[in-house]
Amino acid sequence: MNAATLADARDAGRRGGGRPTREEAARRDARLVAVATQLFMEQGFDATSIDAVAQAAGVSKPTLYARYRDKRALFAAVLEERIRDWLAPLSAAAEAQGAQGASRPAGEVLDELSRILLARAQAPGAAALNRCIVAQALHFPDLARLAYEEGWLRGVRAVARLLAVLAEQGQIAVEDPEIAADLFLNLVLGKASRQALYGIAIDPEAQEARRRAAVALFLAGMRPVTASGGRP
After folding, report:
1. CB 120 within 8 A of CB 193
2. pLDDT in the model for residue 230
C-alpha cells in the first residue's frame, strides 16, 4: 500500500468508514485546492503553512503530503489552476469576440470587447492572483511565465486575429496586428489593472470615460488612409 492509500485509509478511519470512493477523493482534493487558494491569496505564500491548509481542509498532513511533496508544489498547483480559471478567460473573451465580430463595424466590435475585457480583468480573485504571482515571480519563474502566456500573450494573439480581420475588411489599417493588439490591451486595461494590483478603489464613472477614450484613441490611430493619401 503506497503513502497516498495509507493516508486515505487514515482519513477514512476517522470518519468511521472505509477507503473513500473516487468521487469522495475528488471532492476532498477539490476542497483542498480551494482552501489552499483562499489561504495563499489572503495571507501570501510565506505566511501560509502546510499545517494551516491541512487543518482548514479537514485532511491529515500525510494525506496532503501524499499529493504534494511540499508547500511549493501545493502553491504551484494552486496557481496553475487559478491562472487558467481567472486569466485565460481574458483571452477567451477576445477569441469569442473575434468569431462574432467579422461582419460588424470596428468601433462597435472594439467597444464591446473593451467592456468584456475590463469586466474579466476585475473578476473576484483576479487581482489577488496577480499580486500573488508578482510577489513570487522570482521564486516561481515558470508560473510567472505561464501567467504571462495564458493571460496576456494569448489575449494579444486573439485580439491580433480580430484586428487582422477588420484590416482585411478595410475598416482599419494595421501594419503589425500583434503590436496593435498589445497597444489596445494596454490602453484599455492598463490603469484598471494597476489600481486592482495596488488595491486602489476604482471609480466606475472615471473608468468608463477612460475606456471610451481608449477605444476612440485606438481607432483614430488605426483609421485607414484614403486614396488621396489622407484619413477619412
Report:
1. no
2. 53
